[in-house]
């Protein structure tokens, strides 16, 4: 208990179940508002977020909290909210969005399910997973962008590896954008930018073959999009954008 009678973690109001996904019998459920009291800063309760991964009809499970470290701060991963969004790649690798990292620049993290379960122990509170990958902090002009607010996975470059799709609803001067990310090294390939400021473009993303041509397409939600009719005030109606891969 960190040298005091206070707990190190706080699960009240943690939002467990805010994001849930399944893949070939694997299940992940996340609590993005799970809070953690750091070892070095006893008075702080950092919303690092956490996820739980279960396999084989829940016969085995492990916790995955990639932003839980011994010295988190707002400029680091202290407000990460890992698990705000979550998905699986086709080979079962976990993809986690943490929109609060690095002064809310946001972050995307990936790790293999087997590696998450391997060596898991309730006593190993601070734990790095072998083979884990994380996007890194960018320039401070990207603060308050919320990378990882939403995530999805698809194939868009014609190779054998899937790409990650991540919503950034407050990026690009609040126009919002969606980032396509290389899953092998988490470098950014291409961005799709919203057309209206503050529409929250990238609030939600989805990937599917919508036109049946065998290639993945992208859908992006902008729930605060506004339209104006003649001689009336703007109406906040929302909009969904479809990007077809031709």
UniProtKB/TrEMBL annotation:
SUPFAM superfamilies cross-referenced by the UniProt entry: Integrin alpha N-terminal domain
Subcellular location: Membrane
Keyword list, A-Z: Cell adhesion, Glycoprotein, Integrin, Receptor, Repeat, Signal
Gene Ontology cellular component annotations, sorted alphabetically: external side of plasma membrane; integrin complex
Annotated PROSITE patterns: FG_GAP
InterPro entries on file: FG-GAP, Int_alpha_beta-p, Integrin_alpha, Integrin_alpha_N
Lineage top rank: taxon: Eukaryota
Pfam families associated with the record: FG-GAP
Annotated GO biological process: cell adhesion mediated by integrin; cell-cell adhesion; cell-matrix adhesion; integrin-mediated signaling pathway
FG-GAP repeats: 2-63, 68-120, 187-246
UniProt membrane topology term: Single-pass type I membrane protein
Entry GO MF terms: integrin binding
Major place of residence: membrane
UniProt similarity note: Belongs to the integrin alpha chain family.
Name of this chain's protein: Integrin, alpha 8
């Amino acid at each position: 208990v960190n040298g005091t009678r206070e707990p190190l973690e706080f699960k009240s109001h943690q939002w467990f179940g805010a994001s849930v996904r399944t893949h070939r019998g694997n299940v992940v459920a996340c609590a993005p508002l799970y809070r953690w009291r750091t070892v070095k800063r006893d008075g702080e309760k950092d919303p690092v977020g956490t996820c739980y991964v279960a396999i084989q009809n829940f016969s085995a499970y492990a916790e995955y909290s990639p932003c839980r470290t011994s010295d988190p701060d707002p400029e680091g991963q202290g407000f990460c909210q890992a698990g705000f969004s979550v998905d699986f790649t086709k080979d079962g690798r976990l993809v986690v969005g943490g929109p609060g990292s690095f002064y809310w620049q946001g972050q995307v993290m990936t790790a293999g399910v087997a590696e998450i379960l391997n060596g898991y122990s309730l006593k190993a509170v601070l734990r790095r997973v072998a083979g884990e990958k994380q996007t890194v902090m960018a320039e401070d002009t990207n603060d308050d962008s919320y990378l990882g607010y939403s995530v999805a996975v698809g194939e868009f470059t014609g190779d054998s590896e899937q790409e990650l799709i991540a919503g950034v609803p407050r990026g690009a001067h609040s126009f919002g954008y969606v980032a396509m990310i290389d899953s092998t090294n988490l470098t950014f390939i291409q961005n799709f930018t919203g057309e209206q400021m503050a529409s929250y473009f990238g609030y939600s993303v989805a990937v599917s073959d919508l036109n049946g041509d065998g290639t993945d397409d992208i859908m992006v939600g902008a729930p605060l999009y506004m339209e104006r009719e003649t001689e009336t005030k703007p109406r906040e109606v929302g909009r969904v954008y479809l990007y077809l891969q031709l």
